[in-house]
Each structure stands twice: as structure tokens, then as C-alpha cells.
Amino acid sequence: MIHEYSAKANAKINIFLKVCGKYPNGYHRLYMLMQEIDLADDIKVTIDDDRDFGIAVASDRADFDMKKDLCYRAAESFYKEIGDETRCGFTGITAIKHTPAQAGLGGGSSDAAAILKILNKHYGEPIGLTRMLEIAAALGADVPFFLYGGSAFCEGIGEIVTPLPSLKGLKLLLVKPAQGVPTGPCFKAVDAMTEIFDEEEYKNFMGSVFMDETLSPSDRIRKAGGRLTNDLQAPAVAEVPLIEELLGLIGETDCLFAAMSGSGSTVYGIYEDNTAAELAKAKVEADPRTAGCMLCLAEML
User: Fold this and answer.
1) How many angstroms from the chain centroid is the CA of residue 216?
2) CATH code assigned at 131
3) What is the pLDDT of residues 127-167, one digit of tens each?
4) What are phi and psi of 125, to 5 degrees?
5) Is 142 in the active site?
6) Tens of pLDDT along 83-125?
7) Global pTM?
8) How many domains does the structure of the chain reveal?
9) How much is the CA Rg of the chain, to the nearest whole Å?
10) Catalytic one among 142, 171, 231, 281?
11) For a 10 Å CB count at each end of the chain, is N or C smaller?
12) Is 223 tagged catalytic?
């Protein structure tokens, strides 16, 4: 018997990202506000019960290494967890990509989370949420968030997820330069910085703002204001100076806030309505510095 599943793997932005230190194993301890957006990859999974067990991920890229792909690794991790006695059939995976790579938008991580959720549902949910978050965190810092979606604080290496009152409806302009940003050098640069950071005070402040349902989504962004910082932004600008120019350009529009997402290179502006976002897109698109960039409008989910 053949079972077919499809899902939207939505991208995300980081509204803030703080690097709080390192664990003994070398992983960075993070504190982030992550927000799901409606830019998405299309995931298709086919499980054929009549074939021998196996996993395959379709790709038209000549340099594609299937076993390094996050979709493959997610499926492999799931099947290792449930064991030989439970798994059956051949799993074929196709990811139709719309979220650009090296963008700080979590496209691959979202794809991986979609695979975990599809397989867990197919097999009758043998893995509980706590263990699923651990499996997801081993795949990447952004993957646990995508098991939830919406708005959430993410801590630790990403496995501690606290859902927040929705910021749904705020509009976005995304601008992705052609050049990506290597994540490793950004984290190394942050490690070399000597910033005085009161982690407890920062978390208390952000909690007081983003858990306050009496404030509208736009007022939460306004109240947090200049404290919405991305520690990876300065190192990313050193790698790709265009990021800073694009942030300045977006900052000249009628946005509530502008920043780089994740480790970049995508920058974004947040807007209260479609009209403001569309006017901003027209202004930014007309600037010669955006030649070669991907520009698109999106919405918070």
C-alpha cells in the first residue's frame, strides 16, 4: 500500500537573537524570539509498504549529497528512534524549495521538522513531544521551533520552546542578497566579543513585553524597540557589507522595525499593513543596491 502526505514547511524570522554563552560541548546557548512566516517550501512524502525499507530524497542538484540533507537526516533520526521492529516500507521525500538557502530563514530546518511530524503521524505518534524536541535539536537549533510554529521564545540550543501570544497579521518585506553568510565565522566573531549582558534582566523584559496580550502585536514590537538585537548581525555585516546598506534602506521606509534574520543574509522590515509593506517594496526595489537581491512580501503566522 502507498501512503502519500504533503505539508507546507513555513520559514521563520528571528525578531531577536542573543548568544548567551557556550556549553562544555561547544554548542552555543541561545535566547531567541522566532516567528513563523508564510513563505514556505512544499514537502511531499510517499511511503510504499510493498518495498524494502529505505529513504530517498529527490533533488535536481548535481552536487546534491542526500545523506547530508536535513530531510534525509530527519527521516533517518526518526527511524533510528522507533527501531527496526516498527519501521516498514520505502520512504521517498521531495522538497520543492521556495525559501532560499543561507538566508537565516530556516528553510532546511522547517523541512526537517515537517518530515518528523509526517512520519510520527504515519506511525501513530510513537514519539512524544519531549523526545521529539531532543531529536529536532540534534538536527539543528531552529528545528525544535518548527514543531510548534507561531511565535515563541527559544532557548538552550533551541530545544526549550515557549509559545507566545500571536503576532499574526504583521506584514514583512524580505530582502535576500545573492551572497549568503557562513554561520561558523559569525559565531566565532561573537565568541571573541566582550559584551556585558544581563541575561536575567533581558529575559524578564522580553517576557513582560511579548507575553502581554493587552498589547497589540505592533505595540509589542514598538515597546521592545531598540532592545531587539541580533548578536550575529555585526559579524554578518563584516562578511557581507551589503546587509548594512539594505538595513539602512529598509529603515528609511515606514517600518516598525528592521533587522537581519538568524545568521543572515536576509534582512527584513516589519509593517502594520499591506499598504505600508507594498510601498516599502516599491521603494527598496527601485534602489540599484538591491539588484540581484530576492525581494518578497510575507506575513507573520
Assistant:
1) 23
2) 3.30.230.10
3) 999 999 999 999 999 999 999 999 999 999 999 999 999 99
4) 55, 60
5) yes
6) 877 778 899 999 999 999 889 999 999 999 999 999 999 999 9
7) 0.94
8) 2
9) 20
10) 142
11) N
12) no
